[in-house]
Amino acid sequence: MERNIKWTHNGVGIIEKEKTAGAAASAFLAETEVERIAAFHASVPGYEKTPLAELPELAQKLGVGRLFVKDESKRFGLNAFKGLGGVYAVSKVICEKLGIPMGSFAEICTEENKEKIQDMVFITATDGNHGKGVAWAAKKFGCKAYVYMPKGTVECRAQAIRDIGAEEVLVTDCFYDDTVRMADERARKNGWTLVQDTAWEGYMDIPTYIVQGYSTLAKEAAQQLEEAGVSAPDVLFLQAGVGAFAGGVLGYFANHYGEKLPKTVIAEPDTVACIFESARVNDGKPHPSTGNCETVMAGLNCAEPCLVTYPTLRDFPAAYTACPDFVTEQGMAALGLPRGGDPVVVSGESGAVGVGLLCEIMKNEELAELRAHLGLNESAAILCISTEGNTDPAHYEEVMEKYRNQE
Ligand SMILES: Cc1ncc(COP(=O)(O)O)c(C=O)c1O
After folding, report:
1. Under 8 Å CB-to-CB from 363, ≥6 apart: which residues?
2. Which ranges of 323-381 would DSSP assign to H, the alpha helix?
């Protein structure tokens, strides 16, 4: 049965629900799998845990207990989290092609293997960060990557991928989902490997590796929270494009926290909200969004859900939201221009929407019911993940300037 959407006057769309009874957490994100994946990541040159920032002043201002933000701008020097999925998927494909078991980075990248690896070619479609992660991973193994980007891509994001060493970066004249189809066609024609973070019937393995790759950041966050005295956060905000990221993190947490799984809110741009649309239709199947795909949240500008994670995103969240651009911009400002002694977290358009949404939920009286549904109160511990830094520096500065002037 279709679900009701609650629209606030300033355009935030909300769907509330309960976790599906008896929902099963993904076996490919079980604790032992995730330990193995994290050990692989730890073997990659340049690996470091990203920081978990705590923002006590913002928490107090909003009226919540503790607020933590995992800062993925620090991941592998890539200014976004996506290298985790890229390097794990590229490594798995290389091992499969060489017929060797998955080992550490050094075990895969031996002198003998390197000669065979250098002829491998990878291709992907991307809003920016995923392509950068794949190009960076391919380069680490000494092979080539081709990257396709949708129309509207800002030049600095394309240039950042060229700078990391992609063989070619092509900005197409279509939106994200058709750009994926173009990359797939080129891969088939040339015998290259498509490393895509969305999945469809017959193309599930590589997206699964990518989703698994993201679990490392969730595992790190769980450990860091534990060290901060939080055995499980109460509320979790996850942003979604195709939903590979949100499903990877939530899938691992469903395994890790079990009954103590945090109430989870999915945040998407209001113009392109495919997980939200699927939750609205509520027939158990994924549905594309039908918006105009105009949003500043470039990394979340994806109209078709990833099949690998869709069941997790259907069953485990407590709410789905469709967020106008101002939501993420207020999150960018809350993190980039903190009050008092809170640390600065540089968070880009697709990184800050969780914090922006938390601010909105706590201050907008129309959302009091949602606040209660999620248990967002003075004792709640909250986890948000800032998935990117200032990947479009000019727009980032514009937003900071706008909010500085509002003070
Ligand atoms: C910074 C950032 N955050 C979140 C996402 C969302 O990831 P997914 O498409 O897996 O939902 C992306 C995807 O490109 C991204 O670049």
Report:
1. 62
2. 325-336, 353-363, 368-374
What is the reported pLDDT for 198? 87
Q: What is the pLDDT of residue 407?
A: 63
Predicted local distance difference test score (pLDDT) of residue 208? 98
Q: What is the structure's pLDDT at 213?
A: 98
pTM assigned to the model: 0.97
127 CA closest ligand 1 atom index = 14
Catalytic residue (choose from 70, 71, 127, 315): 127
Cβ of 133 closer than 6 Å to ligand 1, yes or no, is no
| Residue segments in the chain with a per-residue pLDDT below the cut of 50 | none
Q: 114 alpha carbon to ligand 1 midpoint, in Å?
A: 31
CATH (residue range 6-81+214-406)? 3.40.50.1100
| Ligand 1 close to Cβ of residue 207 (< 6 A) | no
Task: Tally DSSP H helices, then E strands, for the chain.
Answer: 16, 12
**Answer CATH for 84-196 from 1.10.274.10, 3.40.50.1100, 3.40.50.10890, 3.40.50.720:** 3.40.50.1100
